[in-house]
Amino acid sequence: MRSYFTILCFCYLVNAIGQNNHGIIPKPVSYQSLSKKAVTINAQTQIIGPAQYLAQLHYLSVSLQNQTGLNLGINAPKRQGSAIVVKQDNKLIDHAEMYLLESKDNEIRITVKDLRGLVNAIQTLLQLCPLQKSSSFEVAAVQIKDYPRFEYRGMHLDVVRHMFPLEFIKKYIDYLTFHKFNTFHWHLTDDQGWRIEILSYPKLNTIGSWRNATLIGHFKDTPARYDSTRYGGFYTRKEVKEVIAYAALRGIEVIPEIDIPGHSRATITAYPEFSTKPDTTWNVATTWGMYNRQNNVLAPRPATFTFLRTIFHEISDLFPSKYIHVGGDECSKLWWKADPFSQAFMKEKGLKDEHALQTYFISQSAKFLKEKNKQVIGWHEILEGELDTSAIVMNWGGAKEGIEAGKLKHRVIMTPGKPYYFDHYQSHDPKDSLAIHGYNTMDSVYQYDPVPAALRDAKLDQYIIGGQANVWTEYMGYGTKVEYMIFPRMTALSESLWTPAADKNLDDFRRRLKQNMLPRYDFWGAHYFKQWEQWTRDKQ
Ligand code: ACM
Q1: Do residues 246 and 221 make contact, with C-beta atoms less than 8 angstroms apart?
Q2: Nearest Cα to 402, choosing from 357, 440, 457?
Q3: 388 and 454: one domain?
Q4: Model pLDDT for residues 418-462, shown as the tens digit of each residue
Q5: What is the Å distance from ligand 1's center to 354 Cα?
Q6: Atom number in ligand 1 closest to CA 396
Q7: Is 12 among the domain residues?
Q8: 330 is catalytic
């Protein structure tokens, strides 16, 4: 027994000093311990790098100071002691977002070819440094080569059902950056409000941004109860620009979503003339789940298309992203069926049914966006009619919808409800905090492959460009609740989208989560779901 224990300890030790026993998340493509002296970082250490990355060098310096207390100088003329040296090398670095990090001989050398590569390297470096204040510390001698498995790695946030202060939006972007995501999908409009300032149609803000009450408790509770508090607001253009700049410095692209032609109750409240019943006084929704329950669609009137062209141009001028998300999901056909004007429009345009009308809205929006050199992302329902393949499909269904989109040669972002909806429960504990329904555990997020086997078998894997988790906030009134719902699932997702599939290992991930991330959540002051170990995938 005793010798068995000794062997176990020995094996553990060998592993501890070996190749892979690091705590880095997401796990790098290649990590090697070098048999060299560690690099000492202290107040003399300099950060040295090209002027084009000055903002990122500052970001590195500030991040290191927050974590370790050391305030390192940047590009000082005279160098003493160790250095963190950033180099650009477009030949050596042969993947987008890739970095090499080599720590030895009194230097930590980071080699990149783009801004995201550098931001990614910085996150790895932060994980190689101690998470405590000190006047001097050591970074082990290592060589890391790393790049992402998928080109699109996103997190969505619904700021309509509940809105969050600008400071939280920035914090959320910091969380994305740390986890080496590259896209923030900002869900800005829906039935329950408009959350972005629009100059061309001001009633979207004076009327559409405000609801008179909000549902209390769960959507399924009977009888339904409401508070009587006016709720709302919107991010000003200045704030939006601030978020875009904050994100850009950190390698994150912000993609706004303006959800049409369904999910438009706030729009038709502000401008009833865009609805199927222009004489109606609508109200911004105070409940959730409007699909087929309450009229929330745009009517295909000339004024509506003028509106769409104008706002999509305004949005395009504000956001530098190549893609604009136009929604397109859960568009009820009931209200178009019952509307003589919509029916006459369909006849005139030769649109065979309401699905074709829905696609007509999307293709018109795509045309307006193309005038501004933008392309469309839409939820998978945009495929209900025929659409040209420049549109990226964001699939919130399952493998079936992914295969359909891939067969039509659309690029696809996988955001399947199971397991990438982080508004679903992460336990069966009846005392767990309120969620919409479902059971998406951290394990299932980790183990899900965004390229389902059926897609690979159909040789359509190249059409899957990445994945994203969606954070619908009906039951998340505050940033702390958002944190509780995303952590640790977001951490699991980050590795699933970054690390080569063959290198994923749930047990090792759980070890690194405990060792590296739980202290980091605490350091951030972030809330997280603490019972993640107990609620495994199989515990139904
Ligand atoms: C969605 O969940 N309606 C995209």
Answers
A1: no
A2: 457
A3: yes
A4: 999 999 999 999 999 999 999 999 999 999 999 988 888 989 899
A5: 19
A6: 4
A7: no
A8: yes
User: Across the strands, what pairs with 382?
Assistant: none
Say yes or no: 136 and 233 in one domain: no
Catalytic one of 114, 146, 158, 190: 190
Clarify whether 174 is annotated catalytic.
no
Span 310-340, pLDDT tens digits = 999 999 999 999 999 999 999 999 999 999 9
Which residues lie below 8 Å from residue 191, measured CB to CB, with a gap of 6+? Answer: 160, 263, 264, 265, 266, 284, 285, 290, 294, 296
**Coil, helix or strand at residue 540:** coil
Mutate to test the pocket of ligand 1, among 190, 288, 330 (most ligand atoms within 8 A of CB): 330
In a domain, 249, yes or no: yes
Tokens of 153: 């790695």
- Find the 328 Cα to ligand 1 centroid distance in Å: 9
Residues 114 and 189 in one domain: no
* Domain C-terminal end among 86, 121, 146: 146
* 263 is a catalytic site residue: yes
CATH number of the domain at 72, please.
3.30.379.10
Answer yes or no: are the C-beta atoms of 379 and 328 closer than 8 Å.
yes
Ligand 1 atom index nearest CA of 329: 3
Based on the fold, state whether residues 63 and 117 are members of the same structural domain.
yes
Q: Are 262 and 332 in contact (CB under 8 A)?
A: yes
- DSSP states of 176-221: HHHTT--EEEEE-EETTEE-B--SSSTHHHHTTTEES--EES-TT-
Q: What is the CATH number of the domain that holds 400?
A: 3.20.20.80
Burial 77-113 (b: 16+ CB within 10 A, else e): eeeeebbbbbebeeeebeeebbbbbbbbeeebbbbbb
* Atom number of ligand 1 nearest to Cα 330: 3
Mark 205-221 as b/e (b = at least 16 C-beta within 10 Å): bebbbbbebbbeeeeee
Residue 1: pLDDT band (50, 70, 90) is very low
Q: How confident is the model at residue 11 (pLDDT cuts 50, 70, 90)?
A: very low
Q: How many residues can be counted in the chain?
A: 540
- What range defines the domain where residue 300 resides? 152-539
